[in-house]
């Protein structure tokens, strides 16, 4: 069913279908087959792909050196409410044609923020009502909502970590409305990305006080949403820097520690992003492993960085090795805790055709599908699992098992060391592990 209002924005492009890897139709899926069962679940259920409202329908390709290049038809109405409705029409047409089930938004992606808080609240209510109708018509669901508490100049020193209480309170007011909008649209989760929660200079910053404020603020937001009946997950999205010099939600390990410190660990999980991982000098697989080890692998923002520069370039994923490694962790963790895979990615500034945004998402979804199938084969039919298990086999019985069971004293370790004498080296077999990944791709 193609959902097309009075106006069709993506003319000449119909629904994107799965045609298999031998198809040379650029507007077809080669690997992503929503119905295909992998590791006991349909691909569409594994992934819960989502389209990011901000990049795909708000971003126009501007960069620090020049204005946008992508002035599409839905950007043209001058009245903010008309513009927001046109954008919603274009968004739902695109999402439906892609056959994707979910979208994600920031409050003021949906509609332009007004000059006053009161007027912004009214605008938001109007567009939420409109989008509710679009959802009912199309069946498209909301993976998560969030608030943009980083673009407006009032947040230049942070939102919940702002040294000025009145800015913190304003952020609270704004996030209350974003939570309400998320609940109204049946959002399955709510994301906090601390865009300016961090510092530019330590000379003017009290880290301890700011972290305490953020911890308290997040707890209050959670309590409010729970009191309104929100059952979904809260996610924190780590990123080490940009826009701030340093951001408090630096990486998975930092955020896990923070959540435990402030008593947020039962309601909050992590939304991890590939490009943020690389900015933190980690691989995405590392970030996912750390989150999974704490039962906090919540959701993923799919994209990739540029390996030759250090920016958050938010390119569409196409690195099959990188995504396959991520999918190994994904499958072994039993998937995501409530989240899905949101394309937090944008087409390049010089990609100016309407079909470019289709090619971008098709490529990204195919990369994930191919990586999932590959990771599943590696787990089920290669020696990979056995090789990993073998490395730890000395803990499966005898003294190693006693150690794991807490039956040995430190003095026992000394006695065992004495008895063993000098040890043979045990190879880590890294190159063989790497070859298995390549072989199965
Ligand atoms: C920016 C973040 C942002 C979050 C949502 O780098 O990735 O887009 O995903 O606020
Ligand atoms: Ni990002
Ligand atoms: Ni993101």
Automatic annotation (TrEMBL):
<feature type="active site">
    <location>
        <position position="109"/>
    </location>
</feature>
<dbReference type="GO" id="GO:0005737">
    <property type="term" value="C:cytoplasm"/>
</dbReference>
<dbReference type="InterPro" id="IPR001998">
    <property type="entry name" value="Xylose_isomerase"/>
</dbReference>
<keyword id="KW-0119">Carbohydrate metabolism</keyword>
<feature type="binding site">
    <location>
        <position position="237"/>
    </location>
    <ligand>
        <name>Mg(2+) 1</name>
    </ligand>
</feature>
<dbReference type="InterPro" id="IPR013452">
    <property type="entry name" value="Xylose_isom_bac"/>
</dbReference>
<dbReference type="InterPro" id="IPR036237">
    <property type="entry name" value="Xyl_isomerase-like_sf"/>
</dbReference>
<protein>
    <recommendedName>
        <fullName>Xylose isomerase</fullName>
        <ecNumber>5.3.1.5</ecNumber>
    </recommendedName>
</protein>
<feature type="binding site">
    <location>
        <position position="344"/>
    </location>
    <ligand>
        <name>Mg(2+) 1</name>
    </ligand>
</feature>
<comment type="subunit">
    <text>Homotetramer.</text>
</comment>
<comment type="similarity">
    <text>Belongs to the xylose isomerase family.</text>
</comment>
<keyword id="KW-0859">Xylose metabolism</keyword>
<dbReference type="GO" id="GO:0042732">
    <property type="term" value="P:D-xylose metabolic process"/>
</dbReference>
<dbReference type="GO" id="GO:0000287">
    <property type="term" value="F:magnesium ion binding"/>
</dbReference>
<feature type="binding site">
    <location>
        <position position="314"/>
    </location>
    <ligand>
        <name>Mg(2+) 2</name>
    </ligand>
</feature>
<feature type="binding site">
    <location>
        <position position="276"/>
    </location>
    <ligand>
        <name>Mg(2+) 2</name>
    </ligand>
</feature>
<feature type="binding site">
    <location>
        <position position="312"/>
    </location>
    <ligand>
        <name>Mg(2+) 2</name>
    </ligand>
</feature>
<feature type="active site">
    <location>
        <position position="106"/>
    </location>
</feature>
<keyword id="KW-0479">Metal-binding</keyword>
<keyword id="KW-0460">Magnesium</keyword>
<dbReference type="GO" id="GO:0009045">
    <property type="term" value="F:xylose isomerase activity"/>
</dbReference>
<keyword id="KW-0413">Isomerase</keyword>
<keyword id="KW-0963">Cytoplasm</keyword>
<feature type="binding site">
    <location>
        <position position="273"/>
    </location>
    <ligand>
        <name>Mg(2+) 2</name>
    </ligand>
</feature>
<feature type="binding site">
    <location>
        <position position="301"/>
    </location>
    <ligand>
        <name>Mg(2+) 1</name>
    </ligand>
</feature>
<feature type="binding site">
    <location>
        <position position="273"/>
    </location>
    <ligand>
        <name>Mg(2+) 1</name>
    </ligand>
</feature>
